[in-house]
Amino acid sequence: PQFQTTAYSVLLPVISVIANGTTTIAVTCSAIHGLTTGAFVSVLGLTNNAATGFYNVTVTTATAFTYQISPVTPIAAGSLLTSTTRIVTAYLTVPYGYIQIPQTGK
User: Fold this and answer.
1) Using an 8 Å Cβ cutoff, are 52 and 80 in contact?
2) How do strand 24-29 and strand 64-68 relate by DSSP bridges?
3) Contacting residues for 49 by C-beta, under 8 A, at least 6 apart
4) Which residues in the chain show pLDDT less than 50?
């Protein structure tokens, strides 16, 4: 699907998902992701479920972006990527005062 000029439900070509020991998660793609700061992604299949859900992103380069998790407890530094990791573009709005909408289930 597409909203204005942005396509949604697009699987991003993720090659790394790194926690830096804080609440920031850094994602690197093997190709241009096409996101803009404030866009949303759906994140599934990481080694730490606290970093899965719907998040708005901050674009750092044409192939990289970061997102913030909401728990106060930081995620230990290291790779979160698994063979089942899926990050797709999403179109949604988050309720006022929230930075994410958690996903549940498998």
Assistant:
1) no
2) antiparallel
3) none
4) 1-2, 106
Give the span between the Cα atoms of 26 and 17, in whole angstroms.
6
Closest C-alpha among 14, 54, 45 to residue 30: 14
List, as one string, the DSSP characters of 51-100. Answer: G-EEEEEEEEETTEEEEE---SSPPPSEE---TT-EEEEE---PPTT-SE
DSSP 8-class letter at 40: E
Instruction: Give the pLDDT score at 9.
Output: 82
pLDDT at res. 83: 95
Q: What is the pTM of this model?
A: 0.82
Sequence-distant (≥ 6) Cβ neighbours of residue 89 within 8 angstroms: 6, 7, 8, 9, 10, 12, 34, 35, 39, 40, 41, 42
CB 96 within 8 A of CB 83: no
Q: What angle do CA 22, 28, 29 make, to 5 degrees?
A: 155
Nearest to 90 by CA among 49, 50, 30, 39: 39
